[in-house]
Amino acid sequence: MRPAAPHRTWSTDLPVLVVAVAWGSSYLAAKGVTTAQTVLAVLVLRFSLVLPVLVLVGRRRLRALDARHLRGAGVLGLILAGIFLLETYGVVHTSATNAGLVISLTMIITPIAESRLTGVPLPRPFLCAAALSVAGIVLLTQGAGFTAPSLGDLLMLAAAAARTVHVLAMSRMRSVQGADALSLTTVQLGTAVAVFAVLCAAPGTGSTPWEAAAGLGAGQWLWLLHLSVFCTLFAFFVQMWAVRRSSPSRVSLLLGTEPLWAAVAGIALAGDRPGWTGLLGALLVLAGTAWGRRAAAPPAPAPADTTGATGQLPGSGRAAGEHPLPSPGAAPPPPA
After folding, report:
1. Residues near 100 by Cβ (< 8 Å), separated by ≥ 6?
2. In which domain, by residue range, is 271 found?
3. Is residue 146 helix, strand or coil?
């Protein structure tokens, strides 16, 4: 029986690692399909492809949500819309490498914010890890010389703070306690799409979804499908599946490699050239966030239902199924 254990471990780890790679590449995908004039339209297109599937799969559980759950999920959806907007506009105005690494500061900001709320001090190793990450971000964003950070870098930093607000709200809002994770994600995403659609309808906010769709080439449609299918749907269901077959800490560790894959994708595929200073900063960010995740990890394992009522992966700094971009990535939510 023992020889079979490694096979079972890798059969679970591999899909989770694929999710981390997909999330890391999402910043590059968002840059490939989005411009400053099409951010809202692309967000509507991306998540309109996802919502029908989530509704169809979880229709029975959606009916079980009461008014309290719907209100709570709606509030979370408004925060989620803000995250998507910040991340997507941010990745348009900075490099894919910077976007993926700056947003990883969520893993540092969230424990700090939670510590301030609860009054429980953080261990000294975590504070050292946080300082290392901040130093890395300074070097990374100043790779071409010490100048003011770009607008995109600042937007990604704001997105990292917004993710922290979302994570803490999910864990502390009584109105969403006991809600099914898939249903909660679906309502949040539906709320976010409604916000994007309303903003799209306002004059002077850029292209409509129809105009943006008509202007996309074959390669851009592939990027859009990648964001919708792999970075959102596939990611959500893999997380829900994996945390029931593996340990939360192991899943969180694998998903935590997302910034590494963002840097790999940006440098290898997008031709990002952060310079030696920027590369040193990238290494410090990766080391600091990895060290910080371990230092802030809870000592006891989570119970069997590791996604909890809110669908939050322990230690991940991201909701189950969330992707920054959108990640814009940062979907349900995001990376780009």
Report:
1. 24, 27, 258, 259, 261, 262, 263, 265, 266, 335
2. 4-296
3. coil
Structural tokens at position 255: 């998903």
Q: What are phi and psi of 103, to 5 degrees?
A: -65, -25
**Joined tokens for residue 240:** 């829900």
Confirm whether 313 is domain-assigned: no
Residue 70 lies in a domain: yes
Nearest in space to 234 (alpha carbons), one of 8, 15, 13: 15
**The tokens of 286 are what?**
């990766």
Residue 245: other Cβ atoms inside 10 A:
15
pTM of the shown model:
0.82
Dihedral angle of Cα 266, 268, 274, 278, to the nearest 10 degrees: 90
CB 242 within 8 A of CB 12: yes
Instruction: Name the nearest CA neighbour of 88 among 223, 182, 278.
Output: 223
In this prediction, residue 297 has a pLDDT band, given cuts at 50, 70 and 90, of low
Q: H-type helices in the chain, by residue range?
A: 4-33, 39-48, 51-57, 59-63, 67-92, 96-102, 106-118, 124-141, 151-172, 181-201, 209-215, 218-225, 235-242, 248-255, 258-268, 275-296
Chain segment 133-186, per-residue pLDDT in tens: 888 888 877 655 555 678 999 999 999 999 999 989 988 898 888 888 899 999
Residue 238 included in any domain: yes
SS3 call for 268:
helix
* pLDDT tens per residue across span 74-127: 999 999 999 999 999 999 999 888 898 889 888 888 888 988 998 888 888 888
- Tally of structural domains, the chain: 1
Q: Is residue 73 part of a domain?
A: yes
Q: Please answer whether residues 314 and 160 qualify as being in contact, where contact means their C-beta atoms are separated by less than 8 angstroms.
A: no
Under DSSP, is residue 312 helix (H, G, I), strand (E, B) or coil? strand
In degrees and rounded to multiples of 5, residue 290 shows phi and psi of -65, -45
Cα–Cα distance for residue pair 283/204, rounded to 1 Å: 41
Range from 28-37, 41-50, 135-144 carrying the lowest mean pLDDT: 135-144
